[in-house]
């Protein structure tokens, strides 16, 4: 490495360190402006800066752009066998990938990544959380037709209640009991269906998480 290049690299590293820790927009601008220099640095500096750049993208909600760079960063970490203190950067990046996928609605991919993480570390609360939530969202997507019918029933029940208060009570008081039964059935059924679907979605999502966690813990015990 030439002395000139070393000076450039040192200036970029020091320049980045001078940016406030939470000023993510400036961090992103700085790395993108000096991308060519950063990508030609030695692995320790390169991976550290690109990881901070990726964190900044995630923190300001640029999840798709974050994901675009994550796979290359993960490959770089594996290829260079990079270690960051006591943390396993590979697992940290996978967690970020799972959360980013979840945040853009890619629940199936988020579920897959978090399940792989849970196999690596069965005690990870973050992996447990994202896997459960992704499973919950997937079940909700699959049952959205039934949920739509229940919501329509609820709206009908509410509209029927308004009609009852404005018309039936005033002009047809003898029909109050009959109409009240219809209201009770419609609104009660709609709320029951919605609640049952919520509970079903949660427990189905949780069921897969528990299953993967048990299998991972069992394999870990066998290896030890």
From TrEMBL:
Keywords carried by this UniProt record: Membrane, Transmembrane, Transmembrane helix
Keyword Transmembrane assigned: yes
SUPFAM superfamilies associated with the record: TPR-like
Domain of life: Bacteria
Transmembrane segments: 148-172, 184-203
Name assigned to this protein: Tetratricopeptide repeat protein
Source organism per UniProt: Portibacter lacus
Lineage: Bacteria, Pseudomonadati, Bacteroidota, Saprospiria, Saprospirales
């Amino acid at each position: 490495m030439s002395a000139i290049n070393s000076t450039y690299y040192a200036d970029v590293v020091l320049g980045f360190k001078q940016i406030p820790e939470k000023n993510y927009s400036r961090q992103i601008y700085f790395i993108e402006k000096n991308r060519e220099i950063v990508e030609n640095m030695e692995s320790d500096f390169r991976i550290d800066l690109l990881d901070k750049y990726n964190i900044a993208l995630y923190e300001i909600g640029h999840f798709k752009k974050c994901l675009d760079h994550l796979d290359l960063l993960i490959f770089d970490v594996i290829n260079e066998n990079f270690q960051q203190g006591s943390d396993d950067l590979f697992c940290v990046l996978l967690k970020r990938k799972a959360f980013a996928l979840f945040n853009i609605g890619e629940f199936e991919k988020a579920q897959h990544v978090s399940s792989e993480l849970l196999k690596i570390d069965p005690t990870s609360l973050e992996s447990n959380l994202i896997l459960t939530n992704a499973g919950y969202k997937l079940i909700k997507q699959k049952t959205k037709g039934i949920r739509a019918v229940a919501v329509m029933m609820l709206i009908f029940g509410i509209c029927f209640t308004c009609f009852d208060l404005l018309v039936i009570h005033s002009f047809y008081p003898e029909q109050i009991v009959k109409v009240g039964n219809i209201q009770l059935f419609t609104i009660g059924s709609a709320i029951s269906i919605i609640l049952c679907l919520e509970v079903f979605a949660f427990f189905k999502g949780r069921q897969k998480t528990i299953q993967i966690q048990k299998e991972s813990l069992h394999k870990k015990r066998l290896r030890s």
